Structure formats: C-alpha cells, structure tokens
Amino acid sequence: MFDGRLQVYRRDKGRTWQCAARVGGERFRESTGEEDLDRAKDVAEEWYLRLRGMVRNGEIKPKERSFGEAADHYMRQARVLAATVRSPKYIELLDLRMKRHIVPFFGTTPLPEVNRGLVQTYRVARAEETIARTGKPPSRSTMNQEIVHIRQVLKHAEGLGWLSHLPNLTMPYMTQGKRERRAWFSPEEYKQLYTATRRRAESSDGRRGWKKRYQDLHDYVLFVGNSGLRPDESARLEIRDICIEDDFATGQTILVIDVRGKTGVGYCKTMPGAVFPYKRLVERRAEELRQAGMTNEEITKQLPYIRLFPKFGRDAFNNILREEGLKRDRDGRVRTAYSLRHTYISMRLMEGANIYQIANNCRTSVQMIEEFYAAHIKDRIDTTAINLQRPKAQRKVAKGRPVPPMSAMEQDAAAPI
What we know:
Blueprint (H helix, E strand, L loop, with lengths): L5 E4 L8 E6 L2 E6 L5 H20 L10 H15 L6 H19 L9 H19 L5 H20 L27 H17 L7 H15 L5 H6 L5 E5 L6 E9 L2 E6 L5 H17 L4 H7 L11 H10 L14 H13 L4 H8 L3 H7 L10 H4 L5 H8 L8 H7 L3
Antiparallel strand pairs: 1-2, 2-3, 4-5, 5-6
Helix pairs in contact: 2-3, 2-5, 6-7, 7-9
C-alpha cells in the first residue's frame, strides 16, 4: 500500500494481520489485531497516517546518519579511488588519523550536529590530549590536515544525500597564521655547502668505496641547486629525460628536463651551472656499466634508461650539514634536500626573474611562490617606488605654511604669455 511504503502481511502460523512501514528513516511494525484482510488494511492505513502526522509534528524525529557511518563509507572509497592519485603513505596516514582521533570523537554524532562549534570543541580536546601526553599542543599543520579530513567526510555525506549542506568549519578567530619562509640556503651558505661536498668528494673522507658516493652527492647539490627539482622528481630522472641545448634567447648552454613527479609531467630549463655536474654523472653511470662487463654497444643501448641518481646519500648529506652548522636555519627550521629547491627559487627571485615563469619552470603556483618565497626577498622591494620625497615648497603648502612671496622678476616670469 502507498506505493510500497506500507506492507500488510501475515506470518505462516499467525491468525491476525501485521503491518510494517518505514517512516522518518526508521522501520515500524504493528499488529492490526484483525483476521479479516479488508479490515486489517483499514487499520494499517490509519496507523500509517498517524505515524506520518507524528513525524510532521516532531513527536518522532527522523533517524539521522552518524558521522561514523559516513567515515566508514568514505574510507572504503578512498582506499580504492584515492590510491590511483595519492601515495600509499597518504592513505595510511588518513586511515590512522581517522581511527586514532577523528572517529572516536565524532563517531556516534548525527551528521547535522557536526557544526562549527563542535569542531572547535574537537580542536580544544585534541590540544588538551596532546599537551597531557607530550607537553606541547599539536602543530598548526597537523590540525589543518585533520580538519580537512573532517570536511572531506562531510562533503562525501552531502554527495550521498545524508547531509543537506556543508557546514562552515573555519576557526572563529586567529585565522591568519604567521608569515613564514621555507628553509633555504642563502648564497653564502649555499657556497659553503657545495664547497664542503666538493672537499668530501676529493678526499672521500678516508672511507673505502665512498668516493663515488660523495661525488654523486656533490653533483646532486649542484644539479638540484641549479634546476629546482623536488627530491622525488630527481629520484625518478633517467638520462633519456635530459637534453643539453644551446638556448637561443640567452646564448647559454642549459639542460632541458622532462620531469615526472608530484604534479605529473612537466618541463624544466636549468641554469648553466647544472650542465657540468650532469656530464660528470653520465660519465660515472657509463663507467659503472663498463665495470659490470658491458661492451660499448651495450652501454649505448642501456645508458639512456639508467637513473641519473640511483641513490641519494641522505645520511652523508645530513652529516655534512651538521658539521658545517647548516642543519637548521636561524629560526630553527630543519634543512633537507628540499631546501635546495627553495634555494633555487629564492635566488631566481633575488636576481629579478619573472615570478610567473619561475612558477611554470618549478611546476608550482604563483600563489605558493608569493606566499612562501617572494615575501621574504628584499630585492623584490623597489626603493625607487618607496623613497619618494616631494619638493619642500609642496610639503609646506600641504602643511598649511605660507609660501614666501615672489619677487617682481619671478612674477613676470610666471605670468602667462
């Protein structure tokens, strides 16, 4: 009855007819107390309409889906769909944050009750729990990531029709964070770094078999510092991805790199300083194949498919940074291999390069460069547009001071012709 929303049935050994209906998201059952089917239908119809009226008057609240149900449904899809565009580490951390922090707090809460106030309560509870355990609150980036996951679950529930609208989850105050720069090497520090790696490459630190590792590390510092590649992009580089070209616009010999990494496929044009490290690396990879017993013909066929940096000596790199006092910048930020990319971008801005072209060459956005790099480069400030001074006479007029009267000769000179 009522297009299938109300059912009247009788069990195998029962004498009276039963009725069942789904109203407000919940299932209701009742006995009509009638053995005659026609009278049972009338009773069931009255019962169903009475339930509908109770829902409309608020006497029966519709059953809402909980946040935990939406989170489970979202994670089932995320493990399958996000795996094609996200790394396994991202899915692992997402699952960990959901199970450890988010679902235990929001799990049984109906979706419409997850609002800005409840999320703010979560922020406070999360900070209190972390302070009690570690002595300091969670970092701003950690909390931002968890709020993003909460918003993703709510957005998924809205798409399924479980939620009427997406609530505003922004913080009620202190939404503007401090302006910070990425950890990078100043020109003097960068020179100190590649001087130290060159010294290690020449001496090999007295360790057997480490000479080639230090040579690769030295060339890595020069190559990435002159190209701005991300660590994952440099790790994927094969020799066939790089071409030496004579640039028509500048007349310089540079490298054109077919980059594959975080943002997909793109191109990068390096500084001339990357050419010689690249040539040394190619010769070193060819020598390794020669020592493996390959002929010149086999090396010619195999060499283009060899990775330029088979392995990055992270421990050796960190040891050199510590020995040179470069592991942390003056603000306490840790420098890593990623800092070489930040150094490239910052140095290009210091030299006055076009910010849009830098964004294209580094496969990032102008907004990211403006926020994390350009705002901290002193050469981006034009003193000719800042240190302007009006003539003294104009300043006196602006302040309301009388201007000394002109002589008769000055009046004749100022009179219109």
